[in-house]
Amino acid sequence: MIDHRHQLSSLALSDAELAAQLVTQAGTLAAQMLAAGLTVDTKTSISDVVSDADKAAESMIVAALALARPDDGVLGEEGAAAPGRRSWVIDPVDGTYNFVSGLPAWCSALALLDGEDLLLGAIFQPTTNELWVGGKGLPVTLNGVQVAPLLDRPLHEVAFSTYLHPPRLVDPHLLNPILAVLQQSATVRMIGSGSVELAAIAAGRLGLWLHADTHPWDWLPGAALVRAAGGVAEVFEHGGHSWHAAGPATAVAQAQQLVLAT
């Protein structure tokens, strides 16, 4: 039976409220399915996996958006795609390898675009019960409480977050820039969930995020948070790769200079 009261309440929500509701529901659904047992398949490699929970959470978000924002389009990691006036970018479970392995660093994430304009990001990490929301003209909140503005800091003072996929280590245009940045940073962390990491950047828990050739669903939700927190989130090209950098302005500028110099 269709719950028309739920439909009406969703229609009345702001975009930020709707995004917060959807990532919370998606993350909760994924956690429940994990506890009940999952079917897991590989995609491009043994570490690139997808579970029944990814698919179910994405389907739930798409169905809810079709009711609440019927004129908007969607782009989902697990294949959802439809054009619209605006676009919701969906990562139903970001950090799926962590998720299926029992590691806590995973989340559900959403971003909202109007053309090329990044309006909003929302990230929910069920294992820590942390809900992040922020965007253009909307300060970042953690569980409804506004976070402190991001302090500008140089690269040598901050932790550097990245990811190195083993088969790509043979590419010097990828490896050497990352090593150059690593050598100038305070330390390095590889957490395995882009959105979890970017939320940590927005909160000042991590300092610099630098990944290459990042998918939009791994980048946009967290990039919106970083910008809303007073940091920068930029994309630039070098060595045949698209580099995605986020964090305090000084650290990002220094990292970009190091990449471009390799």
Describe the protein's architecture and organization.
The chain is an alpha+beta fold and 262 residues long. The chain contains eight helices and 15 strands. Strands 4-3-5-6-7-8-9-10 form an eight-stranded mixed β-sheet, sandwiched between helices. Strands 12-11-13-15-14 form a five-stranded mixed β-sheet, with helices on both faces. Helix 5 (172-184) links the parallel strand 11 and strand 12 (187-189). Helix 2 runs antiparallel to helix 3 (52-68), helix 5 (172-184) packs across helix 8 (249-261) and helix 6 (194-202) packs parallel to helix 7 (216-228). The radius of gyration is 18 Å and the shape is globular. The termini are far apart.
Give the SSE map.
Elements: H1 4-12, H2 15-36, E1 40-45, E2 48-51, H3 52-68, E3 73-76, E4 81-82, E5 87-94, H4 96-101, E6 107-114, E7 117-125, E8 130-135, E9 138-142, E10 145-146, E11 159-161, H5 172-184, E12 187-189, H6 194-202, E13 208-212, H7 216-228, E14 232-238, E15 241-247, H8 249-261
Parallel strand pairs: 3-5, 11-12, 11-13
Antiparallel strand pairs: 1-2, 3-4, 5-6, 6-7, 7-8, 8-9, 9-10, 13-15, 14-15
Provide the descriptors you would attach to this structure in a database record.
8-stranded mixed β-sheet; 5-stranded mixed β-sheet; 15 strands; 262 residues; alpha+beta; single chain; disordered N terminus
